[in-house]
Amino acid sequence: MDKSTLVEYIRKGEPRAIARAISLVEEDNDYSYELIREIYPYTGKAHIIGITGPPGVGKSTMIGILSKMLSEHGKKVSILAVDASSPFSGGTLLGNRIRMQEILSKYGIYMRSVANRGFTGGLSRSTWNIVKVLDASGSDYIIIETVGAGQSDIDIVYLADTVIVTLAPGLGDSIQAIKSGMMEIGDIFVINKMDREGSFFALKDIMDNVYEHNGWNPRVVGTNSLKGEGYDKLLEAIDEHRKYSEASGNKKEIRYKEEIRLAISREIEKKVNGAFGELISAEDIARDMRMKIDPSTVARRLFHSSNVAEKEVNF
Amino acid sequence: MYLEAGKNLSSSRPIKVLLAKPAIDGHDRGIFVLARALRDAGMDVIYAGLLPTPEQVVDIAISEDVDVIGLSLLNGAHMTAFKKVVDLLHEKGIDDIAVVGGGIIPDDDKPLLEKIGITGNYGPGTPLSVIIDHIRKRGEEARRKKEM
């Protein structure tokens, strides 16, 4: 399939074309760069919802229910779930799909699982571009499930229009609720598993600790995925936040800026990785190590030598 | 094998495998062992969960753009369920996803499965390395077809 046909099929929402395009984007090469450049004009319509939170709080089940409800309202939903790669083998078990497969089949919702490939921050390096493919395919909503990792996995705040932080009772006390990191990025907080003991204390701890941020007062919603309770409120909160963020508009600008910053650092990293063997010889490495020169000093020496600054990393 | 942390973070994409039991069969211990072994061999692995229909298996394979579908059954329905998956792939004109089988498969059935393109068909006791090598080989074939 040539590029313009691929773009055409993506815009028609054809799952095979979307799937193949996402694989190409994951490879992150010159071809994927060209592809993104071609589809970029067709992006910007979708509302991007990021769902983050620790492992096991029920993010996948929540996404299943949410996408079902949005589909019933006549909206086109796409889902992207990021899972962690093994730091040792690089392999991944992509397990988020199981919890929503029935809903996906029934409503014809496109979902894709990707590995984070060692990228920290809760997303994968190519997530930004994958979202563009889903956006160009005509999605009204794109739901992103981040790697369920921890407090500092907050890159989703730069990518999503609405960030939902999902928690469950028994994960911590009121000190956890005021810690930095994940607790600061939520536009909506969900306490899932409200059937559990201590759920109202968890709800109260979060309610006590959210505060207005850029003119938005984060909503706190309790849900019970077993019975589907609280989901109407959650959908309402998403809708309110969508209206708020569309009116304020500055989030798109922040995202554009962040994407440029990421793209630059990616270019630098590629150049450095590509040229590493030429920058420093094995003998030099052995000599520096023998002389006990610390790695940062070696790096600075290399970076400031005309070789790197002007020739290898050319900008 | 000693694996060095952080060594495999390149942007090149690993072989992607979908593991599925496309009929009524609740015996999933074996497929979990295999899923983990494939992950440790550096592949991206998706498990379709219990009781997917052949239609669902093919839908997942397409959405996730996998290179290999690994089918397993221990209940004797392989001749119909495995065949259904292959037929659905043919119907949709897909020839760049390899299909590999396994489970309790009588020797007499193996040539028949091979004939419709389902290779491997390993039974209990097969060393994991044999299955991994086979899946990698078929995955690489599929990947080459995708790139054409």
Describe the structure.
Chain A: This is Guanylate kinase. Chain A: InterPro entries: AAA+_ATPase, GTPase/Isobutyryl-CoA_mutase, GTPase_ArgK, P-loop_NTPase. Chain A: Residues 45-189 form the AAA+ ATPase domain. Chain A: Belongs to the SIMIBI class G3E GTPase family. ArgK/MeaB subfamily. Chain A: It holds the Pfam family MeaB. The complex is a heterodimer of chains A (315) and B (148). Chain A has helices at 3-12, 15-27, 30-39, 59-72, 101-107, 127-136, 156-159, 174-177, 182-185, 199-209, 231-248, 250-279, 282-290, 295-304, 306-312; strands spanning 47-52, 77-83, 92-94, 110-115, 141-145, 162-167, 188-191, 219-222. Chain A is an alpha/beta fold and 315 residues long. In chain A, strands 4-2-5-1-6-7-8 form a seven-stranded parallel β-sheet, sandwiched between helices. The radius of gyration of chain A is 22 Å and the shape is globular. In chain A, helix 10 (199-209) links the parallel strand 7 (188-191) and strand 8 (219-222). Chain A has 15 helices and eight strands. The N and C termini of chain B lie far apart (34 Å). Chain B contains five helices and five strands, in the order E-H-E-H-E-H-E-H-E-H. The radius of gyration of chain B is 15 Å and the shape is globular. Chain B has helices at residues 29-40, 54-63, 78-91, 109-115, 128-147, and strands at 16-20, 44-47, 68-73, 98-103, 118-122. In chain B, strands 2-1-3-4-5 form a five-stranded parallel β-sheet, sandwiched between helices. Chain B is of the alpha/beta class. Residues 1-11 of chain B have low confidence and may be disordered. In chain B, helix 2 (54-63) crosses helix 3. The chains are: A alpha/beta (315), B alpha/beta (148). Chain A binds chain B through residues 15-16, 19-20, 22-23, 26-29, 85-95, 97-98, 101, 104-105, 110-113, 115, 117-118, 125-126, and chain B through 3-14, 35-36, 38-49, 52, 55-56, 59-60, 62-65, 94, 146. Strand 3 of chain A pairs parallel with strand 2 of chain B, so a sheet runs across the interface.
